[in-house]
Amino acid sequence: MGDGLTPTIMTANVVVIGAGVVGLSTAINIQRLVPSCSVTIVAEDVVDGTTSVGAGAIFRPTKECLPGVDIQRARQWIRDGWEHFSSLALSEHSGPAGIAITPSFMLSRAEIKDPLYKDVVFTFHELSRDEMKKMGFDKHFSYGYLVTTIVITTKLYLVWLLKRFLQNGGKVEKRRVSNMNEFLGRYRIVVNCSAIGSRQLFGDKLIHPNRGQLLRVKAPWIKYCIYTDADAYIIPNQGLVAVGGSREENNYDISIDDKESKAILERCCKICPSLKRAEVDNVWAGLRPVRSPLRIEKEIIKVENDQLTVVHNYGHCSDGIALSWGTAVEAAGMVRDYLKCSSKL
Questions:
Q1: How far apart are CA 50 and CA 48, in angstroms?
Q2: Residue 318 three-state SS
Q3: What is the pLDDT of residues 85-137, one digit of tens each?
Q4: Which helix (H) or strand (E) holds 269?
């Protein structure tokens, strides 16, 4: 075979647990790297109900969300992710996939020194004091940067990913996974993208939630993004504008907190007064999966009297959308290498 893959690899059955942005991206990359293997996604929630579907989603991965990760490894994820998102943004798929090139103001009370995204985004410009004053940003922040980057409307993007996965021959089982023994004898390898579900499925106590809440408002006049270090961001999506946010460690409650919604709007309206007349369309809360470090690795686990090979890919915190494709490329490569190696045994 021209690609050097044996028939054993090509006919392997692979299962991916989780159908958020990381699970879908990983499944598609497995299909890409091992074109004729059979990939099945098993998840209780597919698109709707996932944490990914509610995210505001701007491409601005940071060191702060990648504790314990080698910086060169992180840069590779970012390069791979940017290549994917930017090529989509510049293609005929940008609209259906929910990908938009968007001018974005990054505002901070402290200087942002060489952010990880600086060398990949379309443009990066530090605002002068005069520019900060003209925009009214100097009242609340000492530093500002105008970045031309990419914003993702997550509902559209997840639907686009799912459609691509199914068109490639993928299968989806919409159900809850309760035990790893259900995969014994059915799959050569299990790919775990279950995020916080890894606490129960794999006993990982390092993964924990960070609760976030945001509003989506009707403000079609806002065509640019504002992202700050003060729990305030404004991200225009297709149709609505995401206004956030909040961060609460180890809070599993995803019911809507009306006081928090009011506080979010107050914070954001101080920075962007034109939001004051925006009508609230909906409010969303979800759990960011936090782990130090983000986990991408292969593990052999014992199940009953047998064993399963698992590739993990989870713990992306608030950079889940931005890092999803890059980490999926690495995880899919682990799957390919394992199948190639095990076929020789």
A1: 6
A2: helix
A3: 999 999 999 999 999 999 999 999 999 999 999 999 999 999 999 999 999 99
A4: helix 258-271
